[in-house]
Design goal:
Blueprint lengths: L1 H20 L4 E6 L10 E6 L5 E5 L2 E5 L4 E4 L14 E6 L5 E5 L4 E5 L4 E4 L14 E6 L5 E5 L4 E6 L6 E8 L6 E2 L4 E6 L5 E5 L2 E8 L2 E4 L3 H10 L3 E7 L2 E6 L3 E6 L4 E6 L6 E6 L5 E5 L4 E4 L6 E4 L7 E6 L5 E5 L4 E5 L4 E5 L13 H6 L2 E4 L5 E4 L5 E5 L4 E4 L15 E6 L5 E5 L4 E6 L5 E3 L8 H4 L1 E6 L5 E5 L4 E5 L2 E2 L15 E6 L5 E5 L4 E6 L7 E6 L14 E6 L5 E5 L4 E7 L2 E5 L16 E6 L5 E5 L2 E5 L12 E3 L14 E6 L5 E5 L4 E4 L11 E4 L10 E6 L5 E5 L2 E6 L4 E5 L10 E8 L5 E5 L2 E5 L13 E8 L2 E2 L18 E4 L6 E7 L10 E6 L6 E4 L3 E4 L5 E9 L10 E8 L7 H70 L4 H31 ...
Parallel strand pairs: 13-14, 68-74, 76-78, 82-83, 82-84, 84-85, 85-86
Antiparallel strand pairs: 1-37, 2-3, 3-4, 4-5, 6-7, 7-8, 8-9, 10-11, 11-12, 12-13, 15-16, 16-17, 17-18, 19-20, 20-21, 21-22, 23-24, 24-25, 25-26, 27-28, 28-29, 29-30, 31-32, 32-33, 33-34, 35-36, 36-37, 38-65, 39-40, 40-41, 41-42, 43-44, 44-45, 45-46, 47-48, 48-49, 49-50, 51-52, 52-53, 53-54, ...
Helix pairs in contact: 5-6, 6-10, 7-9, 9-10, 13-14, 20-22
């Protein structure tokens, strides 16, 4: 008994093990409410013609597209006719509608296009269907749907093409009009091959045929009288070829020949209820009965045989599988198989999980029984009373399918509520556990082997090294340290003589050398060398090599990751931490050459970790490290002086290495090198580079279709395809087509993934890959993947990231998206997303897509497995969205879907809007034409007025310029008369009158010029700080004499004694003067004119108020008083002015950011000036330093200044004529030129020129000391002449004074920019010119001294001598020549002139003019200064110094030195020594 018990336990364990390992290779996926399912209770499953999966749940129907669930059900407050969300069954008709039976046995039609339910509650031929209880739905090929009721007859829903609605006809017993049937109890309804409808009832059989859209009775009484009269209870039917077999409850078989239209009746076992009939492939007819078991009838003789099984006399449904087995539904738990060949029955029963008795319902026991075969030929059954599995023919059992109660791998309940297998072989089922389970069967493409199947420890089965030796034996090493050697599938024991295969260590590399030695690399336990002990190599002796820190010739590290034998038979070892090792045998001893003793240039600091070694096609060694790729030529050195070439990732370089962590290197059949990286994908070496060439790579990553960017190992097959193990499955790379075919666990690969660098191609062509859980092997040519025809569907539309529901208020979708051909969107619905999915549920994540929006995109977007396309800010227009799948290896067709999209233009861009725009445009054109004509007329008028104004201003401006020269000739002769002639008192009085009116004339001219500049926008303020009280009083002083003449009381009041403000003194002078002038002009005698200065009342502004007692201005004209050319009314002609003064005053005040106001008083009027006190309202350009009034002011003399300025006393008149400076006078006005010549002749030698061209030629000829020139002249103006003079080395030193009527600051700056020394405006005083000339002459005399002493460039400032760049360069060159040659006693002026390429006379004049020294004096002065410097140094005697600086004798040097410095050289030296001591 004990012996039997022991073996029984072993048998059960073995059976359990075999069962577990016999499990079909599949991937299970569970879906629940967490995944979007509306309810975990699922009662029915189907797949529609489009490819969508539909699930009937306790809370509506769910559509699944492989990515998401969409629920359709009744919701609170909606208009759905669905009254119960519990769905019992779903059937799709031929047209595509879904017929849904709810838990209350009501039927609805679901329109997938409108996504709406339609209740079936009325019939066409009378009768309310609300109380009808439907038990079964049957869809026929004619598009009609038949509803079998419970004892209420039969319903037929016929599709109406016009209304698109079903017309429901009721068939009941006793109903007239062709709708009567034998009984309301319906046993079955089928459609035969000729599309006739056969219905079996408990009171007979009838047949309907559709004619002209209506069903009529088919069976004629004359041919079927016996059948129709007999009232058989027809229980079942089946058919084959032209014969239909009907079974009855009384044991008869009714046979109908569809061709001959005749019946036959065969009485079998009297009183035996026939439950089902099955016509087998063999032709035999199997009949299941109640009480009599199974009957077998010969179709020809109609003879039958009773087959009985013990305890199973009541049998129900029958099913024949592909092998001819008959599967029988019993009344007891389980399922029965009858083997017709062996004529044996077998009952299969599953262990059922324990369920409380009250939960075991008839539903589980009866209605859930099913048996079917999937597309792979696997027979599945949900057994009577519970239990689900597939038939395992080898073990002759119904195998559990992850549902054996209590087993470790149980994932499912074995009580199934519904099951469905689609045409691709995917199995869908729902169990008592709830939810939906999807099973994908992976096939047998990949053979998965485990080293220790019974071990639960991961490391026992993790294969880290796998290799095939020359004897075709497979060496497999686990990470835990066990080594397995298989010869033709049989494990070899004790292959090592002196060591156990379990004590080797964790093996990471295996390599057989050409001499038969097996090299084994371990992680942490060094290198093993296994030498064969016989020719058969069935036994090996093992030697272990370890790192010895005391032995430099030992292995550099005990962690061996790579072993390579090159073409020369050398063994290379790659270590983790110790770099590269080369094995060499000396004196029968193995030594290791490495970076410690041999490889001098090996980058051990960065490349100490080696993961892989490979030999290139040219014999170079390629090294995979964690810091890039290394290469070297092993033949390039004999003493270890190898040159290593490193390739690494370069930021920004797409052709550099993908990642520095290199995992594996592979050389394929044609010598092409491939690099697998950790994170940088697959890298193809471009071309066949030489050892010193820079490597360039073509990179393949996830973007190109690689499943993962981490490549663990790779090998090529016989056809040249690369097979890559990655972190996300296996990939086949077609090198020629550059395409990837990826495989994962859905294709039969183990879920656990692959190991590093563990693969090879066997001699048979099979590929082996080490895995984390065992290893796989396969023949690449034998890998097959079933292709199916499928469709792609548009599953969802989003606008601005919001889901759009078809038919909802405001929705652009009237129908479901996948049923919509065109979407019309408003202009503001321009951000849209489209979801799509291929309706293939095998490996949905491996499907790659491409999409394009025609009319927007220029090319397809290849988006891998992305299932959404988003577009933003689409402009109005018509588009076509297309999406397709790229997986040609999965499908027989190319799934593609398109939809038209129209985005409407905004209302303002529609046709009606454009029509309105056109009308408005016409109206606008007409209006614009009128306006333009009016504007042109006004513009012409304004233009004429503006031209007249410009002509007036231009006229006045020209007159002003022309008046300046005559004024000069008036003022200066009068000045000379006043100085030189003895005048009477009356004459002096007249002279003052003339002088005053000349000043008036100058002011008038200045106003015209200033107003012209303001009008042209060229006014430039010169703001400075001014004491305003004294400033106003100075201006008022001009009018004191006039006030006395008219007996006007002229008052000035100020609230402060002094106050400084920031104004343009010259411009405000004009304003105040104009206002006072007007006040005196219009104020009658004996009145009062008052000036009030208010500086204290306001914090940020001051006020000047001028009040007169004149006639005033009408209130209506006050706004016009500051307009150009305004003249008051009712005034005496003598009081009229130019109409410019007040307009100019206003513009000046506005430029100061101030205000000027005119207002009437009780008597007369007031002008109020408001100005800012500070400088904050002015720009830095306005803030100019106040210039010399004498130089730029156009005013001549103050009226109170009775003395005439004279400069004659400061000019030395005793200079001899030959020594007088030469002055060139260039002026086109003869009178002015002659007058100036007369005034200057006493002090200068004068040469005259009538225009600029003549002046330029004269200057070049005589080289004057100074030039005075007008600006505006014929032939050549003064500015052009000045430019030519200053850019000529011969004349660049000559000072130039410009005289001109152009008085603006811009013209003055322009003249100074071109090199003028002074810019004097007309009219001018001769004394001003004389002083300016005298200053220029004196400054020029001091130039040489300053230049030698300071040796620097003078600042180019007004009032100082300007040294041009050419003069500076000239003097520097002369000084340099003299310094270099002064030691030569024979050095003279000719040498200097020749050295600078200038004539002797020209050079003499220029040097004389610049330095006031002759060349001889200049050289002498230079020598004396150098002598003085040498004396200061104190290193030479006086005689030595004399000869060093070019004096022929020391005596002559002493004489010249004393003459220059008033002390002899010896005394100077003595004084210096005393001072230093």
């Amino acid at each position: 008994m004990h012996y039997f018990k022991k073996h029984w336990i072993i048998f059960i364990l073995l059976t359990s093990f075999l069962t577990a390992n016999a499990q079909l290779k599949s991937r299970l996926r569970h879906y629940s409410t967490e995944d979007g399912l509306s309810h975990d209770g699922v009662l029915c499953i189907t797949k529609d013609k489009e490819g969508f999966m539909w699930f009937g749940t306790w809370d509506g129907i769910n559509r699944y597209d492989g990515n998401q669930f969409i629920t359709y059900k009744a919701r609170p407050g909606d208009r759905s006719s669905l009254k119960n969300n519990k769905i019992r069954s779903i059937v799709e008709d031929k047209i595509g509608y879904l017929w849904v039976e709810t838990y209350d046995n009501k039927v609805y039609r679901f329109d997938k296009r409108t996504e709406q339910f339609l209740a079936i509650n009325k019939s066409v031929n009378g009768g309310n269907l609300k109380d009808i209880v439907v038990s079964k739905l049957i869809a026929t090929s004619l598009g009609d749907t038949w509803l079998i009721t419970e004892e209420q007859g039969l319903l037929c829903a016929v599709y109406d093409e016009e209304t698109k609605l079903p017309k429901v006809y009721s068939y009941q017993k006793g109903k007239k009009g062709g709708f009567g049937i034998p009984s309301n109890h319906i046993n079955f309804l089928i459609e035969d091959k000729t599309k006739k409808i056969w219905v079996g009832t408990d009171e007979g059989l009838f047949c309907l045929v559709k004619r002209n859209g209506k069903y009529v009775q088919y069976l004629k009484r004359q041919n079927s009288e016996k059948i129709l009269k007999s009232n058989y209870n027809v229980t079942c039917v089946t058919g084959k070829n032209n014969l239909l077999y009907f079974g009855t409850s009384s044991g008869e078989i009714i046979i109908y020949n569809t061709k001959e239209r005749v019946f036959k009746i065969k009485n079998l076992v009297k009183g035996a209820n026939i439950n089902d009939i099955c016509v087998a492939k063999s032709g035999q007819i199997y009949i299941s009965t109640s009480k009599q078991g199974l009957l077998v009838m010969n179709p020809k003789s109609l003879q039958f045989e009773v087959l009985k099984m013990d305890g199973q006399s009541n049998l129900l449904s029958l099913y024949e599988d592909k092998s001819g087995n008959i599967w029988i539904e019993p009344t007891t738990p389980g399922i029965i198989r009858y083997n017709p060949y062996k004529k044996v029955f077998k009952l299969y029963v599953h262990q059922i999980e324990e369920v409380p008795e009250q939960l075991i319902t008839k539903t589980y026991q009866d209605k859930n029984y099913t048996v079917f075969e999937d597309v792979n030929g696997v027979l599945w059954t949900s057994m009577k009373g519970g239990g689900f599995g597939y038939y395992d023919e080898e073990r002759n059992e119904i195998a559990y399918f992850y549902n054996k109660p209590g087993s470790s791998d149980q994932q499912l309940s074995n009580v199934v509520t519904t099951v469905f297998s689609d045409k691709t072989g995917v199995l869908w089922l729902s169990t008592r556990f709830g939810g939906i389970n999807k099973a994908i069967f992976t096939g047998n493409n990949f053979q998965h082997q485990q080293l220790e199947p019974q071990s639960l420890k991961r490391y026992d089965n993790e294969v880290r090294a796998i290799y095939e030796d020359s004897k075709k034996r497979i060496w497999v090493a686990s990470k835990i340290g066990n080594l397995y050697v298989f010869d033709k599938g049989k494990k070899i024991q004790n292959i090592f003589k002196n060591i156990s295969t379990a004590k080797i260590g964790s093996i990471y590399a295996i390599k057989e050398s050409k001499n038969g030695i097996i090299w084994i690399g371990t992680k942490g336990q060094g290198l093993l060398m296994a030498k064969p002990l016989n020719k058969e190599r069935t036994s090996y002796e093992v030697t272990r090599f370890l790192n010895d820190k005391k032995d430099s010739n030992s292995l550099s590290s005990d962690m061996i990751y790579a072993i390579l034998e090159d073409a020369k038979g050398r063994i290379w070892i790659g270590t983790f931490g110790g770099g590269l090792n080369l094995i060499e045998e000396k004196n029968n001893k193995i030594i290791f050459k490495n970076a410690n003793n041999y490889f001098k240039n090996y980058p051990i600091a960065t490349s100490n970790v080696i993961r892989y070694l490979e030999e290139g096609a040219d014999g170079t060694i390629w090294i995979a490290t964690t810091d890039g790729l290394l290469r070297f030529n092993p033949e390039s050195s004999k003493n270890g002086d190898y040159q290593f070439y490193r390739s690494s990732k370069i930021p920004g370089d797409i052709n550099s290495l993908g990642n520095n962590d290199v995992q594996v290197i592979h050389k394929n059949l044609d010598g092409q090198m491939w690099i697998g990286t950790f994170g940088g994908g697959l890298n193809k070496v471009i071309g066949r580079p030489k050892i010193n060439d820079k490597l360039r790579f073509e990179i393949y990553t996830k973007e190109q279709g690689l499943p993962n960017d981490i490549v663990l190992s790779m090998v090529d097959d016989k056809n040249g395809n690369l097979w890559l193990a990655t972190e996300n499955g296996l990939s086949k790379f077609n090198i020629n087509q550059k395409t990837f075919r990826n495989y994962d666990s859905y294709d039969g690969l183990p879920k656990e993934g692959f190991s590093e660098s563990a693969c090879f191609r066997s001699a048979s062509g099979a590929l082996y890959f080490g895995c984390i859980y065992g290893y796989i092997s396969f023949f690449p040519d034998k890998i097959t993947s079933k292709k199916y025809n499928t469709e792609i569907a548009l599953t969802n539309l989003q606008l601005y990231n919001k889901d759009i529901i078809a038919g909802a208020p405001g929705s652009p979708l009237s129908f479901s998206l996948n049923k919509t051909n065109k979407i019309v969107l408003d202009y503001n619905q321009d951000v849209l997303s489209l979801d799509y999915s291929v309706l293939d549920f095998r490996a949905n994540s491996n499907i790659n897509y491409a999409f394009i929006l025609e009319g927007y995109d220029k090319a397809w977007h290849f988006v891998k497995n992305q299932r959404k396309a988003t577009y933003t800010h689409l402009s109005s227009g018509d588009y076509i969205f297309k999406v397709k799948s790229l997986n040609k290896d999965l499908f027989t067709n190319i799934p593609e879907k398109s939809i038209a999209i129209t985005i409407l233009p905004p209302p303002w861009l529609t046709i009606w809007a454009y029509l309105l725009y056109a009308i408005l445009l016409v109206v606008l054109i007409v209006m614009a034409r009128r306006i333009i004509i009016t504007m042109i007329r006004l513009r012409n008028k304004v233009t004429v007025e503006r031209k007249l104004t410009d002509l007036k201003l231009q006229f006045f401006t020209n007159i002003s310029h022309e008046l300046r020269t005559p004024l000069t000739l008036i003022v200066n002769p009068l000045s000379q008369i006043a100085k030189t002639e003895q005048l009477s008192e009356k004459g002096k009085e007249y002279m003052l009158v003339v002088n005053k009116n000349a000043n008036r004339m100058v002011r008038f001219i200045n106003q015209l010029l200033d107003f012209r500049k303001i009008q042209s926008g060229k006014i430039q303020l010169k703001v400075s700080e001014v004491e305003v009280v004294a400033f106003v009083k100075d201006i008022a002083a001009y009018f004191n004499e006039l006030a006395e003449e008219k007996n006007i009381k002229f008052l000035i009041h100020s609230d402060v004694e002094t106050f400084f403000v920031w104004i343009d003194e010259e411009k405000i002078d004009i304003v105040v003067y104009n206002l006072l002038s007007n006040a005196f002009k219009f104020t009658p005698p004996n009145k009062i004119i008052d000036i009030q200065i208010d500086c204290a009342s306001y914090p940020d502004k001051f006020i000047i108020k001028i009040t007169d007692q004149g006639v005033g201005v009408p209130e209506s004209k006050l706004a016009e008083i500051f307009e150009l050319y305004y003249e008051g009314e009712n005034h005496d002609q003598s009081q009229k002015g130019t109409g410019i003064g007040l307009a100019l005053s206003k513009d000046i005040i506005l430029n100061h950011k101030g205000k000027i106001i005119a207002q009437n008083n009780e008597e007369g009027m007031s002008f109020i000036i408001e100005l800012n006190k500070g400088s904050m309202s002015f720009t830095s350009v306005d803030m100019l330093e106040k210039e010399n009034d004498e130089r730029h002011s156009l005013l001549l003399q103050h009226p109170e200044n009775k003395t005439i300025f004279s400069a004659n006393d400061s000019i030395d008149k005793s200079i001899a004529d030959k020594e007088k400076p030469v002055v060139l006078l260039v002026e086109d006005n003869t009178d002015l030129r002659k007058f100036l010549a007369d005034q200057l002749i006493d002090f200068y030698r004068i040469t005259e020129a009538a225009d600029g061209l003549q002046g330029l030629n004269t200057a070049l000829e005589i080289l004057p000391d100074l030039i005075i020139s007008d600006v505006m002249m014929p032939n050549m103006d003064g500015i052009e002449m000045l430019d030519k003079l200053k850019n000529n080395l011969t004349t660049s030193h000559i000072p130039v004074i410009l005289l001109t009527a152009k008085s603006s600051i811009e013209n003055q700056i322009n003249g100074l920019k071109y090199g003028a020394d002074f810019y004097i405006t007309k009219p001018f005083h001769v004394d001003h010119i004389l002083v300016s000339m005298q200053n220029l002459i004196m400054q020029r005399k001091n130039l040489y001294k300053k230049f030698l002493e300071e040796r620097k460039i003078f600042k180019l400032e007004p009032g100082e001598i300007i040294i041009t760049s050419k003069d500076e360069k000239f003097l520097k060159e002369v000084i340099a020549i003299v310094e270099n040659s002064m030691a030569d006693p024979q050095f003279n002026i000719d040498s200097v002139a020749a050295a600078i390429a200038m004539g002797r006379t020209t050079f003499f004049k220029k040097l004389k003019c610049l330095t006031n020294r002759s060349p001889v004096e200049f050289v002498r002065d230079m020598r004396l200064k150098r002598g003085k410097q040498l004396l200061d140094a104190g290193e030479h005697t006086i005689s030595e110094i004399a000869y060093m600086i070019g004096f022929s004798s020391s005596g002559y040097f002493s004489t010249c030195f004393k003459e220059e410095y008033k002390i002899s050289p010896s005394d100077y030296q003595k004084n210096r020594n005393e001072n230093n001591s």
